[in-house]
Amino acid sequence: MTIKDKRITGGLGPDNRNDSFNSFSAAINSRELLTPKDNAHTYILELNELKKKEAGEYNPHEYADIEHPTTFFETLIHLLKSSFGTGILAMPLAFSHSGWVLGIIGTAFIGLLCTYCMHMLVKTEYDLCKKKQVPSMTYPATAEAALMEGPRFMAKVAPYSGTISNTFLLLYQLGTCCVYTVFVAENIQNVCNQYFEHPVDERIIMLIILLPLIFINYIRNLKFLAPLTTMANLLTFVSFAIIFYYIFKTEITFENRLTFGNYRDYPLYFGTVLFALEAIGVIMPLKNEMKNPQHFGSACGVLNIGMFSVVALYILTGFFGYLAYGAEVGGSISYTIEPSDIAAQVCKLMLAFAIFTTHALSMYVAIDIVWTQNLVKKFEKNNHPLFWEYFIRTCLVILTFCLAVAVPYIDLFISLVGAFCISSLGVAFPAIMDSCNKWQERRSAKSVLNHVKNVAIVIFAFLGLIVGTVTSVQKIVEKFGPEST
Fold first, then answer.
1. Cα 294 to Cα 126: distance, rounded to the nearest angstrom
2. Which single residue of 79, 212, 313, 325 could bond 329 by disulfide (Cβ 3.0 to 4.6 Å)?
3. Could you tell me if 115 and 48 lie in one domain?
4. How far is CA 429 from CA 97, 163, 422, in A?
5. Residue 70, domain member (yes or no)
6. Domain with 333 in it
7. 182 domain-assigned
8. Rounded alpha-carbon distances, angstroms, from residue 136 to 61, 65, 125
9. Residue limits of the Amino acid transporter transmembrane domain (predicted)?
């Protein structure tokens, strides 16, 4: 007797449970086990999986097999590190678009919305893991499984949802790498201009750093990036301390500071804050790597503590940075601090090195999507698969370099990436997944209110996507117009 097609996808009744257990026992006793060849295309009902179902409701957190799980504090530090980069340095400019009153209120609101949507994503993934009886899921897998639980028209879209999610994730990571390339070049340019008679073109600096960027992205294992990342984190915190020193050294005044900005610039503010606040790319990996993942989304868990700290620091940076420098603040506040001071120059170079290293981390996700998930199988029979992997890595770095050279405006890049990618990945998609996951409960009043709430979130997100993207593109076009200098 051979056991085939006995995969458990949901709860088992007593009769089915006993039949499955007896069938598996009979197979063992009769020694009629599947060969490796058969096993490649057959689901086998394993004894430990039966025990899980015999014990009662499946809890994904109890069956996560993690080689090196992270503690609560380690996960919190990872979340904070992933949120402190070019985004926080652009917050003073975001406040110049919104005005300081709307900046405070709007950042707090967007922070709450992003945190809530992250909670929805984590809860949806947990519910689906229980239904599918797997320890964890990726973002694309969660999207596909959630849509399968929804109405018929959503179920028809489900097979494509993984590709859609991966496309937005890829665009987000590549866009982030473009931002990093511009950021590194402009900080180095700021320092070089203090020592050269003629201004240095940032595009020349981008060309100079292209080869080092390619080489650092040839590192295939994140373990070997760890020493550089640790150094980069230390330099980032020192740089932030220097920046705050210059902010509070400058006169903090409300004079000539807008309480509410020009409404035409609000979409730029929206996109910048979304880009700065959202850590959607790391939320699920961080949760899935925890020793106690149930502590990630709890009331006093990693997500709430981390996002509260991030939002508070972003508001403080945007508020005081704008009051200190006003409309003169640059796309990154590091551009604005005293250009001739040695401490400021060291700060800019430290930030350039830190973000240069972070470029490899963001590109790692893009390479995983393009190469590992899609192309590697096509080169399995090739004699030189490693060559083609490095070729793809090189092409992706050159692509982001070309985009950065074409549009070397970090503030507009940040706003565009935030409005287009994060409003969908971080806000709209989690709301859609939540409604689909709870679609069978739609008859209760509570469920109806939940669906109405999610529809409102999706409408808000897509309005932000459309208006923010169009505004950012218009501003980029204006930069190349005849009136631009």
1. 10
2. 325
3. no
4. 27, 13, 10
5. no
6. 84-479
7. yes
8. 8, 10, 7
9. 68-472
Domain membership of residue 252 (yes or no) is: yes
Nearest to 195 by CA among 354, 357, 349: 349
Record the pTM.
0.80
Share of the chain above pLDDT 90, in %: 38
Q: Contact at 8 Å (CB) between 275 and 332?
A: no
CA-to-CA dists, residue 240 to 92, 324, 329, 334, angstroms = 14, 15, 16, 9
- The region that residue 35 occupies, defined by phi over 0 for left and psi between -120 and 50 for alpha, beta otherwise, is beta
Instruction: Determine the distance from the C-alpha atom of residue 346 to the mean position of all C-alpha atoms in its chain, rounded to a whole number.
Output: 29
How do residues 226-247 score in pLDDT, each as one tens digit?
788 788 888 988 999 999 999 9
Verify that 186 and 275 share a domain, yes or no.
yes
pLDDT in tens, 5-41: 333 333 333 344 344 434 433 433 333 333 344 444 3
Q: What are the DSSP E strand ranges found in 362-430?
A: none
Q: Do 229 and 328 fall within a single domain?
A: yes
Tokens representing residue 71 in the block: 């503690």
Place of tokens 């669906």: 451
Do 150 and 45 share a structural domain? no
Distance CA(342)–CA(332), nearest Å, equals 18
Given its phi and psi angles, is residue 354 left (phi above 0), alpha (psi -120 to 50 degrees) or beta? alpha
On the 0-12 / 13-18 / 19+ scale of CB atoms within 10 A, 443 is exposed
Amino acid identity for residue 13 in this structure: G
How far CA 454 is from CA of 311, 430, 447, in Å, comes to 23, 9, 10
A 10 A CB-CB count for 15 gives 8
Q: Are residues 128 and 44 in the same domain?
A: no
What whole-number distance in Å separates Cα of residue 91 and Cα of residue 110?
13
